[in-house]
Amino acid sequence: MPPPRPFLFCLVPEPLAARLLEPMQACFAEDPTVEVLVERRSADRPVPSGHSRAPVAARDLPARLPPELRELAKEVAFVQRMEPLGPVHAYVPDDDLVRLVRDGDPAAASELWWRYRERVRIVLRSALARTDADGAERSALGAILDALDFAGPDGEQAFGEWLDDVVRAHAGAVGPAAAADSR
């Protein structure tokens, strides 16, 4: 079986690369699922015609950092690129899909997102203004994946109800201003 390829990306802002790139690379050297890169894209530079960027989840991974890097890494972004959707997990029951996501299967995370994306949008729109909800989608996906990493549904609660709770909590935490900033 080939080693896992990176699906989590630590994006170090270019102005901080001289100071942070090597320490962040050392921190994640043993984790084949994380790749540390210098962020060279900008919001000012349009995506070339005929191309689109894959959806990404804004992940909250500072807990994985040693204490001495947490403060320095406040400007670092962690994202998880969603894999292209395929038939592999199309009929996998939710409980098994959650287990696969927790085991680090990036294709399962993509299936989970596409399966529940509309539900997440509806919950966000009920908690935030429509434009804020659209901006919070990426960070909501990250919040779901982060919550699955640490807890997930406990068996007492259906997955959909658990998901709604996570998204409502996320919407309450980001609020309208932060949702607009996450775009």
Task: Offer a few descriptive terms.
alpha+beta, single chain, globular, 183 residues, 2 domains, Rna Polymerase Sigma Factor, Chain: A
Can you walk through the features of this model?
The protein is α+β, with helices and mostly antiparallel strands and 183 residues long. It is 49% helix and 11% strand. It is built from 6 helices and 4 strands; from the N terminus they run βαββαβαααα. The chain has a 4-stranded mixed β-sheet with strand order 2-1-4-3. Helix 1 links the parallel strand 1 and strand 2. Helix 5 crosses helix 6. The C terminus is likely disordered.
In short, what is this structure?
The protein is α+β, with helices and mostly antiparallel strands and 183 residues long.
User: Could you tell me the radius of gyration in angstroms?
Assistant: 17 Å
Number of domains: 2
Question: Under the CATH scheme, which class of the largest domain?
Answer: Mainly Alpha
Oligomeric nature of the chains: single chain
Task: Tell me the β content.
Answer: 5-15%
Largest sheet: 4 strands, mixed
Which CATH-level-2 architecture of the largest domain? Orthogonal Bundle
Shape: globular
pLDDT averaged residue by residue? 82
Going by CATH, what is the homologous superfamily of the largest domain?
Answer: RNA polymerase sigma factor, region 2, helix turn helix motif
Helix amount, in percent?
Answer: 40-55%
- The low-pLDDT segments are 177-183
According to DSSP, the number of beta strands is 4
Distance between the termini: 37 Å
Structural class: alpha+beta
Read across the widest sheet, the strand sequence of neighbours is 2-1-4-3
